[in-house]
Design brief:
Number of strands: 23
Number of helices: 22
Low-confidence stretches: 119-126
Structural class: alpha+beta
Radius of gyration: 36 Å
Shape: elongated
Strand content: 15-25%
CATH architecture of the largest domain: 2-Layer Sandwich
Number of domains: 4
CATH topology of the largest domain: Heat Shock Protein 90
CATH class of the largest domain: Alpha Beta
Strand order of the largest sheet: 1-6-5-4-7-3-2-8-9
Largest sheet: 9 strands, mixed
Distance between the termini: 117 Å
CATH superfamily of the largest domain: Histidine kinase-like ATPase, C-terminal domain
């Protein structure tokens, strides 16, 4: 029996919005079931809280649950809960109006937005209930508020009107029944009476809802036949909401594998629980192997966002910085909207606070791993170190923490990596800089002429061979008060570093002896180099090329050109070893024969040799080979 039936029209703007919903604003229509289950879960939460507050409220809270009922013949799907329910006024206020505020603004933005952006905007204005009209020709809601005797029925076909009436008998809680549209594969409209499809949606979006989600399913009996029985189809195992001492390692491992689809065990588990004005829990995992798309332009991240245990999105880039994109896990916030969009997440102050804390927790876990388990840390850094070092460029707030956990190859040990802290502890007395050299490989760096004096005098040099190393070293000026210095840039004077003042007089004499040669060679190579000068970094090689502080390295020039950027070619400095026989002989020959053509060819060869020694390329390989062959022939 029903009374007080009314047929009402949606407001003009609401009609337009409803039509947009019907015509697939959501790219994934499965989310309608997520929305209904989320609403049901909220209703159960509210009833439990209300029963706790109001001791006079006569309600049964012994079996709170969500039920999904399917009628394949009638093609209906019902989501039912025995939660708090709604009064008639609640229905008019909450269900009878689409997006009570902001509807016009949403419509304007939808008209301006691309198809990809439209889905994000829908979530922003809280109209998730109306996603049901994407899959249903008619939606009927029956609800009775706890403590009231009468119920309310609301129904609509989504064609501009809705009917609302009071009914005398209905169970406490809310049921939403959808008369489903026909299946349409082209429009991504699935058969939502199919048991497998419903299970799949529940497990993807609502598996960790606190309340049991029950459905009648088909099972096999002991005789090999089939029977129908009611089963709970969600796990309700929200590991992140349980204390660390309540969860076993096996449970963590199985959850990680379910979440990440990785058959290997995680390397580390990070449990976070924040209480106060903004509550959330997080369960994060550091994998033991890097994903294949770690450095791909189109890559996925592994942190899933839940709100009150309702799945919201599985690629939530707002929760962790890009250099931690390999982290897998779940973040469950208590105070966010279920319809939160990526656009909102990027601007939300609470999300920013979560991101900062989660980042610090992950970095702290890596630091503890380095201190307490060298083997696991070594695995982590081998797999993810190159990505983590991106944070030295992009995350100045955590730069000190990143420098603390970073490890680098160095000349101290050909096998073991070193931290900057360990490097500083080993520095020679009077050493003021942390020395490094970048290159394509350890072999290239180790054989570089720039290393000769440092090797001879026992100075440790960091061997940086990752592409990102070329960039972060310019962004990090110092560590623990010690400036970082490239041994391939600027002038290097290790004698002065060691306080050997007597060497200065010898260098002054050499500069006088070689002044004419240096001036002439600078003129000869004016198109290729900025200057020719004597070197204090060479012991066995005749020459090397060095940049000045602030210059782009040859590698970075190549990177920019590969990206399509036009950058001017940097002229570098050619440094000569005044003790090398070739350089000594060239000085004598120049003093005797001036600018003879064959001497100009020797200068060209000397410059080409310096380029090749650092792994570079000569401008004209054929000419270089011919000149070298002629010079060799003349010595026989």
């Amino acid at each position: 029996m029903s009374t007080q039936a009314e047929t009402l029209e949606f407001q003009a703007e609401a009609q337009q919005l409803l039509q947009l919903m019907v015509h697939s604003i959501y790219s994934n229509k499965d989310v309608f079931l997520r929305e209904l289950i989320a609403n049901a879960s909220d209703a159960l939460d509210k009833l439990r809280l209300e029963a706790f507050r109001d001791k006079d409220l006569e309600v049964d809270t012994s079996d709170l649950h969500i039920a999904i009922e399917v009628d394949r013949e009638q093609r209906t799907l019902t989501v039912r809960d025995n939660g708090i329910g709604m009064s008639r006024d609640d229905v008019v206020s909450l269900i009878g109006t689409i997006a009570k505020s902001g509807t016009g603004e949403l419509l304007r933005k939808l008209k301006e937005a691309s198809d990809a952006a439209a889905n994000e905007l829908i979530g922003q204005f809280g109209v998730g209930f109306y996603s049901t009209f994407m899959v249903a020709d008619e939606v009927t809601l029956v609800t009775r508020r706890a403590g009231e005797s009468t119920a309310t029925r609301w129904s609509s076909t989504g064609q501009g009107t809705y009917t609302i009436e009071t009914v005398e008998e209905a169970p406490q809680g809310t049921s939403v029944t959808l008369r489903l549209k026909p299946e349409d594969a082209e429009d991504h409209l699935h058969d939502y009476t199919d048991e497998w499809r419903i299970r799949h949606i529940v497990q993807r979006y609502s598996d960790f809802i606190t309340w049991p989600i029950r459905m009648e399913v088909e099972t096999r009996d002991g005789d090999g036949g089939t029977k129908r029985e009611i089963q709970t189809i969600n796990s309700m195992k929200a590991l992140w909401a349980r204390g660390k001492d309540e969860v076993g390692e096996d449970e963590y491992r199985e959850f990680y594998k379910h979440l990440s689809h990785d058959w290997r065990d995680p390397l580390e588990t990070v449990h976070v629980k924040a209480e106060g004005t903004f509550e959330y829990q997080a369960l994060l995992f550091l994998p033991s192997h890097a994903p294949a798309d770690l450095f791909a332009r189109e890559r996925t991240r592994g942190v899933h966002l839940y709100v009150k245990r309702v799945f919201i999105m599985d690629d939530c880039e707002a929760l962790l910085p890009d250099y931690l994109r390999f982290v897998r896990g779940v973040v469950d916030a208590q105070d966010l909207s279920l319809n939160v969009s990526r656009e909102i997440l990027q601007q939300d102050r609470h999300i920013s606070l979560m991101r900062r804390r989660l980042t610090k927790k992950v970095l702290s876990a890596v630091k503890d791993m380095r201190a307490n388990d060298a083997d696991r840390y070594r695995t982590f850094w081998t797999e993810f170190g190159q990505a983590v070092k991106e944070g030295l460029l992009s995350d100045p707030e955590n730069r000190d923490a990143l420098l603390d956990i970073a490890s680098f190859a160095s000349t101290h040990d050909p096998e073991q990596l070193t931290t900057l802290r360990e490097y500083v502890e080993r520095m020679k007395d009077g050493q003021n800089h942390i020395y490094y050299l970048t290159g394509a490989s350890r072999q290239v760096v180790e054989s570089s002429p720039h290393m000769e004096a440092f090797r001879a005098k026992g100075y440790e040099v960091l061997v940086l061979t990752d592409p990102i190393d070329e960039m972060w070293v310019d962004a990090v000026p110092e560590f623990d008060g010690k400036p970082l210095k490239s041994i391939a840039r600027g002038e290097v004077d290790l004698d002065a570093e060691e306080g050997a003042e007597e060497a200065e007089g010898e260098r002054d004499e050499q500069r006088e002896e070689f002044a004419a040669l240096l001036e002439w060679m600078t003129g000869e190579l004016g198109e290729q180099v900025r200057q020719v000068r004597l070197s204090s970094r060479l012991t066995t090689s005749p020459a090397c090329l060095v940049g000045e502080a602030g210059d782009l390295t040859p590698t970075m020039e190549k990177v920019y050109r590969a990206m399509g950027h036009e950058v001017p070619r940097t002229k570098r400095v050619l440094e000569l070893n005044p003790s090398h026989p070739l350089v000594v002989g060239l000085r004598k020959a120049h003093a005797e024969r001036g600018d003879a053509p064959e001497l100009s060819e020797v200068v060209e060869l000397l410059h080409g040799m310096a380029l090749l020694a650092e792994g570079g390329e000569v401008a004209d390989p054929a000419r270089f080979s011919r000149l070298l062959a002629d010079r060799l022939a003349s010595t026989l």
